[in-house]
Amino acid sequence: MDFSIGNYHSIADSMISEWTRRSLAPMVASKGPGCFIWDAKKNGIQSTGMFYTKDMVPKYFNGEMAIGLQQMIEEADHSSEVVVALIFDDKAMGLRLAKTDSNKAKELVPPIIH
Fold first, then answer.
1. Three-class secondary structure of residue 82 per DSSP
2. Which of 20, 30, 31, 64 is 20 to 30 A from 80, alpha carbon to alpha carbon?
3. Per-residue confidence band for 3, with pLDDT thresholds at 50, 70 and 90
4. What is the C-alpha separation between 105 and 25, in angstroms, rounded?
């Protein structure tokens, strides 16, 4: 699979069921609202990334990306949505996706890119 920002739909499709499963796990759910951060270089196909709470996001991202992700986290209905950040080299993308156990990610709002 090509890990590029232009191929983000395929990446999200391949990971949405795992993000959904992990978001429902008691250990993650008990931490409160947050997002999964997936880095193409660090995670690739080996991992679906790490979960970060809203307060932890600025430790990973600076400026507009952190603010945008925190806003996505605040606005999301975490019972039916998952917030995800995808990192590709020098670009990052934030997504709000519908939770599902299928292999088709459904974007609920336009993505943010920084």
1. strand
2. 64
3. confident
4. 19
d(CA 111, CA 41) in angstroms, rounded, equals 21
* CB-based contact 22:102 (threshold 8 Å): no
Distance between CA atoms of 49 and 85, rounded to whole angstroms? 9
* Cβ–Cβ under 8 Å, residues 95 and 75: no
Among residues 50, 57, 43, which one has the least CA distance to residue 11?
43
Distance CA 5, CA 89 (A): 9
The position carrying tokens 């606005």 is: 75
User: Given the DSSP bridges, would you call strands 50-53 and 81-88 parallel, antiparallel or unpaired?
Assistant: unpaired
